[in-house]
Amino acid sequence: MRFAPGARRFAIPAFAAAALLAPVAFPLSLLALAAGGFVAWFFRDPERQPSGPGVVSPADGRVSVVRAEGDQFRVGVFMNVTDVHVNRAPFDGTVEGVTHRSGKHLPAFSKESERNERVDVAVETDDGPAEVSLIAGAFARRIHPYVRAGEDLTRAQRIGHIDFGSRADVLLPPAYDREDLLVAEGDRVRAGESIVAATDR
Fold first, then answer.
1. May I have one GO cellular component term (predicted)?
2. In CATH, what is the architecture of 55-197?
3. Average pLDDT value for residue range 115-119
4. How far apart are CA 37 and CA 12, in angstroms?
5. Count of CB atoms within 10 A of residue 198's CB?
6. Per-residue pLDDT tens for 62-71?
């Protein structure tokens, strides 16, 4: 199993504590071992392949936002603690910029999460400008983008992860309209696999 960067930083101290506690406080050792196992599982990074043509989901989780913004549509996916937290490129394109914005750490499923800390990845696609936003949640304190301005993206490529709870949005290129959307609020999706919009169906 592949793991996202950062897994060792959190898991190794827990496993070390389990080893040190085992001779003197076995129940606490088991607790530390369980914590280390949970962290390793949380940072899991499975292989994914798109299930068809079109824009793939940037995250595992439940669709929490579908709305128009000018001549574009935004699809937001809320990741709870049981979801894979490695984020994927929804489309092919070129990274135009990666911008970090400081902000609050409110629950990522709430409307107020628009004011949360985030990293916006601007992407130029064949269908026009688009954006992927990695948004911190109530417990997330670090956003880790893997890409930089000038890099070419391949659909379903890993582009970052967020530690412990969060949301990922995709602002679709202008070529996509409401009829091209394939998901609604409440739908479950998988990063790099589920198709959220397609112009040829």
1. plasma membrane
2. Distorted Sandwich (2.70)
3. 81
4. 10
5. 15
6. 999 999 999 9
